[in-house]
């Protein structure tokens, strides 16, 4: 039996999938007994289709793919949550299996997509939505299901990890690191989704939903990016035995799911501290397996296409063998999202202040007023233009109390209006 495929989207990842199918179709059939044929390709860009030699099966209307009765599996690789949602949901309603790499769609409309797949008795596979080529969703839905997963934490955005690495290793400023990342193709012309943490938020929403069997949507993830991080912050972290990473964090707690994305100080001894450049890593803790870490390239044509085609071949195997979907939606629990205000952790906070007597005493009074205990305070850098940088490290404190401190200190006369740098510490 030949399983017939329809592909929507011929960008970087879609092109990679076409190349894999062209180069390895015979290998798949010989080694695994899986015969897959690409019979329809849809894109808004005919030039891309021509470049990959699929002009004879090309269409610009995705309905041609959905309405083709011969197609068994639809591969959605256009991204976003508008047309892509129509493609994915339309394919499932048409009785077709779906493979997607769309993190934003699954993190926002995952419940709808999973319900449609269940009603149709079809599979929805989305391994490439998190971690690029790193196998993580399939292991969590199969290999690790004997565990109670208590923590998922990871570096899941290669752009920001590359930028922070360059800022540490070569002292580049944020702006210089971003420019270099864009020139090398690691960052988009509009880098908002990466540098403001939204890409990572979508991914941790998906991982938390699977890990804790409870629906977590992208909008429920507290999200902060790296725009305010400077080389001074990175140097201070190193001096204290830490590195700074943009971490996506999800913990199961007695109060519910603690899920967030923000710059985080990690001990240099932590496994994630050595993950540099464009690499991703996802750290999972289960009650039986203990600590595990999945590491690899998180983006690019090859890694993402590898994950997509892995899903395609697995779904095709099930189609050939008449196997019903193995693991569908597992979000049967309804755990609450822990409010960010309730978070308790240590904090690194850097203020730019006027170099005048009385400033330190005034700030100390504000910390004390809100019951935030200070572990240390250090002046860093050189005095410039009558200003200095003061770096505070707190003992474990409540997020709301720290926010109250920041708000009140911002009103003091000698505090410059630059937004302070705040980095949470994960020991």
UniProtKB/TrEMBL annotation:
Domain annotation ACT: ranges: 348-425
Sites where the protein binds NADP(+): 8-15
Pathway as given in its UniProt record: Amino-acid biosynthesis; L-threonine biosynthesis; L-threonine from L-aspartate: step 3/5; Amino-acid biosynthesis; L-methionine biosynthesis via de novo pathway; L-homoserine from L-aspartate: step 3/3
Cofactors required: a metal cation
Residue sites binding L-homoserine per the record: 188
UniProt cross-references to InterPro entries, sorted A to Z: ACT-like_dom_sf, ACT_dom, Asp/hSer_DH_NAD-bd, HDH, HDH_cat, HDH_CS, NAD(P)-bd_dom_sf
Catalytic residues, chain numbering: 203 (proton donor)
Classification via Pfam families: ACT, Homoserine_dh, NAD_binding_3
A molecular function GO annotation: homoserine dehydrogenase activity
GO biological process, one term: threonine biosynthetic process
Catalytic activity: L-homoserine + NAD(+) = L-aspartate 4-semialdehyde + NADH + H(+); L-homoserine + NADP(+) = L-aspartate 4-semialdehyde + NADPH + H(+)
EC number, UniProt record: 1.1.1.3
Sorted UniProt keywords: Amino-acid biosynthesis, Methionine biosynthesis, NADP, Oxidoreductase, Sodium, Threonine biosynthesis
Keyword Amino-acid biosynthesis: yes
Binding site for NADPH: 103
Family label: Belongs to the homoserine dehydrogenase family.
Its job: Catalyzes the conversion of L-aspartate-beta-semialdehyde (L-Asa) to L-homoserine (L-Hse), the third step in the biosynthesis of threonine and methionine from aspartate.
Protein name: Homoserine dehydrogenase
Highest classification ranks of the organism: Bacteria, Bacillati, Actinomycetota, Coriobacteriia, Eggerthellales
